What does this fold into?
Amino acid sequence: MGASAAVRGTRILDLSDSAAGAYATRVLGGAGAEVVVGEAPGGSALRGAPPLILVDGETRSAAWEYLTGFKTVAEVAPGDRVEVAGEFDAVVVGSDAPAGIEELATELRSAHPDLVVAAVTPYGLDGPQAGWRAGPLEHWALGGQMALNGEPDRAPIPGGGAWASHLVGANAAVAVQAALLQPVGGRGCLVDVSVQQALASAHQWSISMFTHTGTVKVRAGNRHGEMHHPLNLYECSDGWVCIAAASYNQWEGLCIAIDRVEWLADDSLASAAVRYDRADELDEQITAWTRQHTMAEAVAICQEHFCPAGPVGELASTLDHEQLAHRGYWQQRPDLGPTAKVPGVPFRTEPTPQPNRFQERSWNLNERFAPLAGVRVVELTISWAGPLAGRLLADLGADVVKVEHPTSRGVAVLPPDPDAEPEPWDWGELPPPVVRNGIYPNAEPGDEWWNRMSLWNKMNRSKRSLCLDVKSEGGREVFERLVATADIVLNNYSPRGVRSLGIHQDDLRRIKPNLVTISMSGFGSTGPGAEAVSWGPILDAASGLAATTGYADSGPYKQGLAFPDPVGGLHGASAVLAAWEEHCRTGDAVHVDLSQLETLLCVAGDQVLETSLTGKSPERRGARSAVYAPAGVYGGARDDRWLTLTVYDEDDWARLAVLVPGLDRPDWKDVVRRRADHDEIDGLIGAWTSGFEPFAAVRVLQEAGLAAAVVATNKDIVEDPQLAARGFMVTLDQHACGPWPYPGSHFLVDGEGLPVRPVSPLGGDNDDVLAELGYPPADTASLAEAGTIATAPPW
It folds into this structure.
């Protein structure tokens, strides 16, 4: 397996000391760049970051050991950073304590105008909260993820590792890769990656729920809130399984699998949202069935009936995972111990990257940052991970033509009954089940309900729509003509789906021999587990991440949103940029086989390393840390309003002890004692925070120099003054909808977000695309009459 070549031949200097910045440069190093960590003489803050491991009797940071993979480390004094940076093509700076980062970034840009400088900070380089601190626990809070994790009657919980921080790093890696696609010897740029903004971009429907219906999304335990059921963790005789019956066909398969076919006679249960509202009733019967089976039995029976299901594995069990072993995923680290392993690069590139054969290259220069201008991407994707990768490519200027089946926009949404009386509903309430899953503006499906679904419109912005039945008469010809004009073809179907559609890379290369192709399946396209049906929560369970998340006294918890999807989508965009750069260097076809399971384990690589050495999976700790104390989630003056706080060192503790009555005990100056007395300390902090609105408490803590964050809801994100100052929410005038707010750019370049455009209506670009392919209007009309192309579903 060769490394990809997104930045092959470039040199990158890592001056960051945060998990997010270090993960970004690890991705870039895995993509073929030469990465040098410029560590200050006093040592990086990451050298003390958890999890901690013992190597030859010495305590080391597994985070440091993992995140410095694919890199070399050199000492660079602070006064030498700007001069040294002149030897590199890109520099990544940033810290969870961002004081001085803006000044350093400005100095680097001023001294080296052709340099790409990426700054990764908690809130970005500008705005009213630009200087605020936030570490990995706060990252889960400020981006809106934590508010959705855990039980509704308990405090919210973070994911079980620094995964959110690493997801931000994947954002930064994509941004740097894109910036390096700018003309060689041309202008450099300043890439401004805000943890808050990157994570606010990593939601599926949460933000649209508030902007389009005023609904504040809440925690739902292991259920997948409001929309889909059964999508839950269920107890078996020997552990837990995740069952994810999101679509009607999957629901039908589940009913047959567990011998509950009478449920199929209940027409109301055809709606996934109705099933959610009746979850207690359904789960009682599903749990009765799963408890009679082992995990392996339950998964096999569900998968046999095409209902996605998977075991909730421990992180330790992934080290012996048959699929991962077959694909040669793990990298050995004998320098750390005979059993030490870490994740490798989460995709395979074929053929192995080649040396540069071209001396010159043609680039499309733009006034605005659009490094993929002139590149045509044909996208065949469903759900979230694939569309997110395509959306990022469109944001970067590519002409993304989304090939949609006429039924694609209603896969998980039942067509509304035009003769039914609308149910009573008020703004801010959860919409009735019959219209809930569409997340329509004002909860009104309207005449063109398929064009009014905010989830679809959000995920597919800036793309063109070709509504084409590839398998129909004449459809294959249209598709092959389109592929012949493409530069990149992207799909996220299972290997079975790829074969069914005839979009395997070998099929596509017969149409255009030097295509760039990428397959983003759940488990990869090779190996004994490649054919398994997968959704994000299935991967959450299979990876061991769900087993690592939870309260200290609880079982496993999946994430409240399908966290593996943005992980897969961002790594997918990075892989596309890798493959495209390789193609531009050689002119050859490049294929990328990406496993979303492997991308997910990459963001937990530090814990994989720890587990490989100890043989034990990480403990579930809620919000507490194995190193820092106190670290936790604390209630505010209102019900279900929370904030996070992490004390990193003795200076932090001294500042907190001044603010909170009762903390000034001399023995609590010792972090070991604080960990032992964490419950008592939490009680004192909670009593103090309960007298504040969370935003007010966080402001007091930040003004004292402490890392704290409000556990943000979807409402908080939409109304956040920091995100507003950075122009995060944008208004898009969608067809059949009118103007509504949507999340915008993942990051800023030279102070501006990437340009975003409304998504086309279903088949809205049929005529234009077919004209580009040489079809005269009469032939296009004939294809429409035959149903080969369409502008509405067939229902």
The longest strand covers residues 34-39. The CA atoms of residues 222 and 232 lie 5 Å apart.
